[in-house]
Specification:
The chain is α/β, with parallel strands linked by helices. It contains 12 helices and 6 strands. It has one domain.
Length: about 270
Amino acid sequence: MENDINDEKEKENNNYIHSNYFSHLNCSALYVNLKVFTIKKVLMAEEQEVYIMGTFHTEHFERYANYSIEEMINAINGIEPDVVFIEARENSFTEYGVVDGPIDMCVTFSYCFDNNIPVEMIDYWEITNDSKTNTTTDERDDHIHNNIMKKLVNYENKRILIICGFGHLNAQTERLIEAGGQKQHISHKSDIFKGENEDFVYPSMLCDVWEERVLFYAHTVPQLVQENDALNEETKANWPEDVDDSFYNWQMKYCELFEANNLYMD
């Protein structure tokens, strides 16, 4: 009974957080303990411990979010996964060698590479005349779930960490439970985000990984869009090529942050 009450409280908290996702006004109290609601655990049929961690993308670099990239990396260390699944598309990496997910996925990929942790890519989206950028839909979450399930068969009796945007957290947790998983309690969640108080250093290859991603969206994706006869002119107009390097210069500001090992943009 107590577990049911706790689960219901956690569900209410997650729904509240999701409905107020990054509203900047009067939200200081919301972020104080937000991190503890961003990790779930599901035990799958093949004795796989699956952790799902919802992240904040660029908001990790803002102090008000109270959830830094350092804490995200601490959580990876605290969970000690055998493999990490990230919100990036496998076909982009296979065809173009680019991690096309959000910035925290590039950080995760680089960190895992430095620490010999295998990485799998599970995201799905495509550009169509009806699609909207930076959106989460049931269809997309269904595809992500299917990608997760296909990859889980390769990791029997392993500990898997799925890192995805916070907007996918509940959707992916619920789908794993519907697929036969059992929700597990995580004790002392706040301790997972604590490190050893060493000086923080970004992964060594991060700036290179990030620049590849920036160039991909500055040139490769717009060129593919313009060459696609199935897309209308309105859609193509939403994907202009970065001919004046304005997008490139804006996004590469993050490399200045990485090279200085600073956690925040301000």
